Amino acid sequence: MSAKAQAIDGEGWLLGARRVQSPNFDDRPLHASIDLLVVHSISLPPGEFGGNAILELFTNTLDCSSHPAFEDLAPLRVSAHFLIRRDGETVQFVSCLKRAWHAGVSAFEGRERCNDFSVGIELEGIDSDIFTNAQYDALIGVSAALTARFPIFAVAAHSEIAPSRKTDPGPGFDWQKLLDSAPTLRRMRSPLGGAKS
Ligand SMILES: [Zn+2]
Hints:
Elements: E1 18-19, E2 25-27, E3 36-42, H1 53-58, E4 82-84, E5 90-92, E6 98-100, E7 107-108, E8 111-112, E9 118-124, H2 133-149, E10 154-157, H3 158-161, H4 175-181, E11 186-187
Bound molecules: zinc ion.
C-alpha cells in the first residue's frame, strides 16, 4: 500500500491521478448523497491489457471497426470515475461530484439508478481472472480518499447491482483485501440476504 495519502480536491478530482476527461457524464440529482462504491472490471479487447482502447471508449474516440470485439461498442456512451490499470496507474475520467455513466440499469438495496449516488471504479482485467497487487494497492488508496471525502459506506460489484446483465468484476476479485484495508466499508446485502464473497 502506498504510504502517500491521497485526497480528492475541491472539484472532485483525485490528486496525483492521471486525468483523461470524458464527455460522458452529467449532473447528479440535486442533494444526491455519494455513498456507494461500485467495482467493475474491463479490458479491451477482452483479456488484453495496456492499450488505449478503454480510454478511447470512455472519450468516444474508439475506432470500433479496428477490432471485431469493438463492433458492439459503437453506440455506447459510457464512462467511469476511475480506471486502475494492471500496473496500478489510476486514471480519472469524471469528477466524483458528477454522475459518470458506469452502472446502467441497476439497484442497490432497493435504490435504483446507482449512477446517481455512486462512484464507479474500473479495474483493468477480466471477470474470469485475478487482479494485481498493484491494483489492490491503488484501489485501497482511492477508496481511502473517497471515504474521507464522501459519506460512502458500502461497496458493491457491478454484478450485484445489475445481476441479470453483468458479471464483473468476477470471482477473482478479492473482497477481503479491500475490506481489510477499508474498515468503514461494508458489502451490500444481496437480494437473497447476506453478502456473497
Ligand atoms: Zn461493470
